[in-house]
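Lab notebook page, bench 4
Experiment: in silico fold of construct C2
Operator: M.H.
Input chain length: 294 residues
Purpose: comparison with the prior construct
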Amino acid sequence: GGAGEAAKDPVAEPDAPLDGSVPCLPEYAADLPAGPVVYVASCYAGGDSDGSAEKPYVSVGEALESADAGSVIALGAGAYEENVLITKPLSLVGAGTDDCTLSTAGEQVTLAVVEAADVSVRGLSLLGGGPAGLLVSGASRVDVSDLVFAGYMGDHPSAGSVVTVTQSEAVTLHNIEVGAVGVDGVFVSESNDVSVSGCTVLGGVSGVFLSESSDVSVHQNSVQGSKSAAIVVSSVQSVVVADNSISDAAISGIAVYFQSEVTLSGNTVTDTVEGGVFDFGNVSTVPLAAGVLL
C-alpha cells in the first residue's frame, strides 16, 4: 500500500438490483473521525443520491455542498475527476492511496482549503498535469496526512508548487509523498506554526521551500533529487530542520538566506554538488554545520 493505505470498511451490502446489474459496493476507510458522515462513491448510478451509505453522492463537490460544519466526507474507492474546494470545517477521508484518486487536468489546483478552520484531509492520491496539487490559503488548524501527489509539473518555479501553504497557521503536513518536476515540492510562505514531517519529496526545484514564516518544523523527511537546494529557508524565524535525509541535490542540502533564525539537528546529506549547508544569512547563535552529517 501507499502512504495513506488504511483499513477498509465496506458498507452494508444492498439488495441486488432488479435489472441484474452489479451493485455499487465501494470500500471506505475503517477509521473515520467522529461526526456525521456524508458518503461519496463514483460507482453509484442510482440517480437519487442523498449522501447516505445506500445512496452516496457521486462527486466530492456534491458532498461538500450538502455537508454541515463538522461533517466527515467519506470517499469510497474509485476515481474522482474534479477540482475540490473546502471552505468549511470538516474531514475529507479517502479509502486509501492505492484505491482512491482525485485528478485534474491543466493548471487548476486539484484540492484547495481556503479561509477555513479545523479541516483534515487524508487517505487518497492526487493526480495532476499542472503544477498545483494542494493549496492551503488563509486557513487555520489544518491537518493533511497520508496523501500521494503524482504527475505535477511546471516550466519554472514561479509556475507554482505541488503543495502550497500560504497565509495560514497551525498547519500539519505528515506522511505525504510528493513527486515534482520543474516546480517546488512543498512551499510554505507567510504562515506560522507549520509542521512538515515524515514526508517524501522526489525531484522538484527545491524539495521544501520556506519563506517569510515563523515557528516552522521540518523533521524526519526524505528529500531526493532536487534541482536546487533540497531544503531552502528564506526570511524565516524560529525554524527547526531536524533528522531529515537529503540526497542527490544539484546544489546544497540546506540553504539559508536573508536573516533567518534556523536550528539544524541530525540531518544527513549525501551526494550533493555543493555540500551540506549553504549559509547566506543565518542569525542563529548555533553553527549550522553542527546539525548536518555528511
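Observations: Residues 225 and 248 are 5 Å apart (CA to CA). The mean pLDDT is 86.
Next step: discuss at group meeting.
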